[in-house]
Amino acid sequence: MSVQAEVLLSIEPEVDALATEILRDVEEDANWQPTDLVPDPATDEGYARIQTLKSEAAELSNQLVLVTAGNLITEEALPSYQTAFNRHIGLNDQTGVDDSPWARWSRAWTAEEKRHGSAMSLWARFSGRINMRAVESTIQHLIGNGFDVKTDNDPYEVLVFTSFQEQATLVSHKNVAKQAGEAGDSHLQKICDLVGTDEARHARFYKTAGRLVFRADPDGALVALANMMKKKISMPAERMYDGSNPNLFADFSEMAQQIGVYTSEKYVEIMELCNQYWSVEKLIPQTDAGRKAQDFVASLPDRYRKLASRRKPKEVPLARFSWLTQPAGT
Ligand SMILES: [Fe+2]
Ligand SMILES: [Fe+2]
After folding, report:
1. Scanning 2, 8, 118, 281, which has its CA 20 to 30 A from the CA of 319?
2. Is the CATH number of domain 3-202+234-262 1.10.620.20?
3. pLDDT tens-digit readout, 98-145
4. Once rounded to an integer, what is the mean pLDDT over residues 209-226?
5. Is 123 a catalytic residue?
6. Domain ranges across the chain
7. Which residues pair with 324 in a beta bridge?
8. Catalytic residue of the set 76, 112, 116, 154
9. pLDDT tens by residue, 12-51
10. Residue 76 among the catalytic residues
11. What distance lies between CA 120 and its chain's CA centroid?
12. How far is the CA of 74 from the centre of ligand 1 (A)?
């Protein structure tokens, strides 16, 4: 058994308690399902409320609608993320019904995540703002194209990745919720707010599990963190394609940056947050590799902040995207 797998096994009792604390019971009253968040067209009242949802969505900027579509596509590529997680020995669910806390977490996490793309798709369908066929083609391309998490199957590295990524999606969904609320769209606001709250719980799980790993194997964890930072956290939807735009992901990221939903400054903040959460600068590594890794990760936020401040925003023409229907009134 690798050192990593041994460490992950040794912290299972704490991971079990953590998963139990963070996961929500499907049947508890406060739990939600996508259907709760949009009107039910089967009733006359619900049918009428669809009109309200649609007129609220008509007030959103094209840019915000596009970023929402990109976030929805990212969520819908969930099969790639569960597959990526399960490739890591020590965390993986070997039978599909394993009893280990890591396996139980990975299934329950996926089950909670599944609601995100579904809820956003229901909204998108009723909003009248999104070309659903183009979005669906992009999802099919994206899942088919795959996703390289770039961890070399190292389980510590994937815990670093998920800590960053859940924190990033939390920021992105909460910012969409805020901007949708400001534009008067109560439906999109509520959906993205609930999705963002799920991401916050998931981020807490991964960061806390990461803290257990840092405590049990500080040098190994530092090296894993440094490795991931060198490779840069890959964006889950970077291989998205809609059949026409070869730079679709770059255009989507630029649009998210432009409207302040997810920015390079946020990436630096997440780096700092993880460094603090894992007390990276206070650790006392025992090996040269550990010390080198510590110096590297401690210096990164400042370096990235400088790069971010020099970054010139680029205008992204709406015509590069196939995801919009014609906006209302045009
Ligand atoms: Fe999600
Ligand atoms: Fe997530």
Report:
1. 118
2. yes
3. 999 999 999 999 999 999 999 999 999 999 999 999 999 999 999 999
4. 98
5. no
6. 3-202+234-262
7. 130
8. 116
9. 999 999 999 999 999 998 899 999 999 999 999 999 999 9
10. no
11. 14
12. 8
Helix, strand, or coil (residue 69): helix
d(CA 183, CA 60): 6
Nearest ligand, measured from the Cα of 73: 1
**Over the stretch 52-65, which tens digit does the pLDDT of each residue have?**
999 999 999 999 99
The pLDDT value given to residue 328: 43
- Measured between alpha carbons, how far is residue 274 from residues 66, 72, 161, 269 in Å? 29, 26, 11, 9
Q: Report the distance separating Cα 205 and Cα 75, nearest Å.
A: 19
Q: Give, for 190, the enclosing helix (H) or strand (E).
A: helix 186-216
Decide: 285 and 222 in contact? Cβ < 8 Å: yes
The pLDDT, as a whole number, for residue 134 is 98
How do residues 262-307 score in pLDDT, each as one tens digit? 999 999 999 999 999 999 999 999 999 999 999 999 999 999 999 9
Neighbours of ion ligand 1 (CB under 5 A): 75, 113, 116
Dist. CA 148–CA 162, nearest whole Å: 13
Q: Give the span between the Cα atoms of 31 and 166, in whole angstroms.
A: 20
Centre of ligand 2 to C-alpha 202, Å, is 6
How many helices and strands in the chain, by DSSP H and E?
Answer: 13, 0
Tell me whether residue 116 is one of the annotated catalytic residues.
yes
Contact predicate 29/137, CB 8 Å: no
